[in-house]
């Protein structure tokens, strides 16, 4: 069987949404509306049940419910669906992949098993993914470990991963020194994709790599525009904002991302326990950056904005009052 990598473009690790007192019920209506907005604004694909989708807190039944909505909403529009299927065991990973394939996923995302990482070396990790390939024919993208663990993926190791029949890509950690070399090595190919999560100084479209950014939940148009940016001006703007500590919070912490999402878009809610409700220190850091997320940076194609009022949650005033903030559609 011949496998193709996910197509070039912008990908978003989507949020999961909840309702009821303890967030015990999936909010499938909000999830559908969110996916419709992402697809309308040009994202090439979405990833379900990642860190930002609160993957560890989503049951098998709920995964099926979310995936069914994603397939119904996105398949007719040609938007790619990736599903996080990582687990500590080969058996559970393969079962998640089987369920994902049955539900309509195009690809799986897989991470290195971390529970026994101290007892694994690169050869063990390669053999693990090779065995995954024997258990499941769903094509998968490997998530390289971050720089704070002992295992790191060199360009040579990623080249070995590419030899596994249905291993069709690798997501590189932010700020990895190997990104440029790896991206250039695999540039232009359709059989193996390099994903990056931070723009850095890599031109995704030039090298035909894939850009996956959590901030796309709030500003998908900007992420798409960056990918298509021919002269680097959008890159300069995004880098200037992303290098601030506040936006790094939003881009790397699901609680901050959901808080900003709720304030800017009017929906998002909170996370499932034990993830906390955003504390006052966090909201005080995030609030000042919201105009940047809701203004020209977010593009007026998404919303009509003639001013923004950052309000105090305790008063319930401001952000969504008529004439100030009007979400599209």
From TrEMBL:
Pfam families reported for this sequence: DHDPS
Gene3D superfamilies: Aldolase class I
InterPro entries per record: Aldolase_TIM, DapA-like
Protein source organism: Kockovaella imperatae
Recorded GO MF terms: 4-hydroxy-tetrahydrodipicolinate synthase activity
UniProt protein name: Dihydrodipicolinate synthase
UniProt KW keywords: Lyase
């Amino acid at each position: 069987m011949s496998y193709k990598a996910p197509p070039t473009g912008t990908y978003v690790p989507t949020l999961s949404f909840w309702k009821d007192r303890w967030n015990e019920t999936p909010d499938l209506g909000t999830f559908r509306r969110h996916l419709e907005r992402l697809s309308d604004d040009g994202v090439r694909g979405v990833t379900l049940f990642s860190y930002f989708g609160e993957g560890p807190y989503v049951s098998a039944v709920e995964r099926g419910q979310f995936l069914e909505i994603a397939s119904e909403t996105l398949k007719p529009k040609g938007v790619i669906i990736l599903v996080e299927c990582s687990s500590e065991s080969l058996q559970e990973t393969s079962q998640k992949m089987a369920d994902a394939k049955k539900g309509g996923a195009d690809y799986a995302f897989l991470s290195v098993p971390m529970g026994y990482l101290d007892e694994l070396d690169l050869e063990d990790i390669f053999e693990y993914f090779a065995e995954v390939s024997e258990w499941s024919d769903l094509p998968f993208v490997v998530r390289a470990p971050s720089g704070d663990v002992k295992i790191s993926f060199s360009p040579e190791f990623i080249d070995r991963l590419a030899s596994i029949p249905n291993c069709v890509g690798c997501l590189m950690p932010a700020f990895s020194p190997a990104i440029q070399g790896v991206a250039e090595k695999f540039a232009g190919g359709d059989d193996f994709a390099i994903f990056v999560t931070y723009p850095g100084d890599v031109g995704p479209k030039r090298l035909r790599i894939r850009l996956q950014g959590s901030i796309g939940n709030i500003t998908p148009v900007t992420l798409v525009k960056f990918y298509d940016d021919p002269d680097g001006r959008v890159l300069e703007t995004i880098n200037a904002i992303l290098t601030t500590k506040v936006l790094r919070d939003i881009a790397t912490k699901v609680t901050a991302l959901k808080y900003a999402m709720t304030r800017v878009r009017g929906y998002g809610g909170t996370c499932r326990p034990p993830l906390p409700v955003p504390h006052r220190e966090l909201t005080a850091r995030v609030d000042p950056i919201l105009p940047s997320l809701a203004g020209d940076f977010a593009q007026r194609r998404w919303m009509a904005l003639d001013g923004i009022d950052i309000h105090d949650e305790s008063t319930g005033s401001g952000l969504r009052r008529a004439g100030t903030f009007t979400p599209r559609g």
